[in-house]
Amino acid sequence: DYIDDEVFGYFICIVISSTFEKLTNLICLCLYELALNPDVQETLRFEIMKAVDDKRGDVSYERLCSLKYSHRVILETLRKYPIVYATIRTCTKDYKVPGSDLVIEKGITVFIPIYSIHRDPAYYTDPEVFDPDRFHDLSVQEREVGTFIPFGEGPRFCIGSEFSILLVKLALVQILSKYSFSACSKTKVPVEFTTNSNYLSVKSGIWLKVEKLS
């Protein structure tokens, strides 16, 4: 069906407005993990500096999309800190849970604890460790379906997922090509979260030492 420019404009505004606050949290948590894992930060910066145009100081869309390690860093951040930490779904038909006698009846509301799934040692070895290589192509192929769902799953999968990852990549390029991050005396390990939000939100902010690259 035909969609006029005004309707399309409203749609884009909804997608963008519902994205930026969550992405701010994601970027901060990514920088937090990079500060605690300097080896990961240096590997990421090396990839970024190779992609940045020396004369203009920016990066093309094509190069941005090709940043594979950056992509893995973002996905690992989403694993440890899924911004939408839980979701609910309504069962559309009776379902018997494999390996048990439990039957989830049609119409039952199911709570899905995304945060807990992402940190389950049954799916992720040493789940508290920040390891972007979990998202190497081979590791992704071997992962059980439904164990990495920061953007949901199925017909209600977030339509802004690729856009969100692209924006975070762009932010990391602009930030890490100019600054380095490390922990300071005010850095809390582990990070603390507020319980007053529908989204994963850091309590009292994140404190890091920021230094300009020479």
What would your notes on this structure say?
- The chain has 214 residues and is mainly alpha-helical.
- It has a single domain (5-212), classed as Cytochrome P450 (Cytochrome p450, Orthogonal Bundle), CATH 1.10.630.
- The chain is 42% helix and 9% strand.
- The protein has helices spanning 5-17, 20-36, 38-51, 61-65, 68-80, 114-118, 137-142, 161-176, and strands at residues 87-90, 95-96, 103-104, 109-112, 179-182, 209-212.
- Helix 2 packs across helix 5.
- The chain starts with a helix and ends with a strand.
- The mean pLDDT is 88.
- Belongs to the cytochrome P450 family.
- Keywords: Endoplasmic reticulum, Heme, Iron, Membrane, Metal-binding, Microsome, Monooxygenase, Oxidoreductase.
- This is Cytochrome P450.
The count of β-strands is 6
Q: Note the beta-strand portion.
A: 5-15%
Task: Supply Rg.
Answer: 19 Å
Shape: globular
CATH topology annotation: Cytochrome p450
What is the CATH H-level superfamily?
Cytochrome P450
Helix content: 40-55%
| Helix/strand/pairing category | mainly alpha
Query: What oligomeric state do the depicted chains represent?
Result: single chain
Main sheet overview:
2 strands, antiparallel
Q: Report the CATH C-level class.
A: Mainly Alpha
From the N-terminal CA to the C-terminal CA, the straight-line distance is: 54 Å
Poorly predicted spans: none
Labels describing this entry:
globular, two-stranded antiparallel ribbon, 214 residues, Cytochrome p450, mainly alpha, single chain, 8 helices
Indicate the topology.
Blueprint: H1 5-17, H2 20-36, H3 38-51, H4 61-65, H5 68-80, E1 87-90, E2 95-96, E3 103-104, E4 109-112, H6 114-118, H7 137-142, H8 161-176, E5 179-182, E6 209-212
Antiparallel strand pairs: 1-4, 2-3, 5-6
